[in-house]
Amino acid sequence: MTTDRSASSGPALLEVIDVTKSFGAVAAVQGVGFPLYAGEAHALVGENGAGKSTIVKMLAGVHRPDTGTLRADGRDVVFHSPADAKAAGIAVIYQEPTLFPDLSVAENIAMGNAPLTRLRQIDRKTMRATAERLFARLGVRVDPDRPARGLSIADQQIVEIAKALSMRARVLIMDEPTAALSGVEVERLFSVVRSLRDEGAAIMFISHRFEEITALCQRVTIMRDGRHVCTERVEDLTVDDMIRRMVGRDLSALFPKQDVTPGEEVLRVEGLSREGVFRDISFTVRAGEIVALAGLVGSGRSEVMQAVFGVDPYDRGTVTFGGKRLKPGNPRAAMAAGMALVPEDRRQQGLVMELSIERNVTLPRSGALARLGLLFGGAERREATDWTERLRTKFGRLSDAVGTLSGGNQQKVVLAKWLATGPRLLIVDEPTRGIDVGTKAEVHRLMSQLAADGMAVVMVSSELPEVLGMADRVLVLREGHLVAEISREDATEESVMYAAMGQQVAA
Question: Which InterPro entries would you find in this protein's record (predicted)?
Answer without folding.
Answer: AAA+_ATPase, ABC_carbohydrate_import_ATPase, ABC_transporter-like_ATP-bd, ABC_transporter-like_CS, P-loop_NTPase
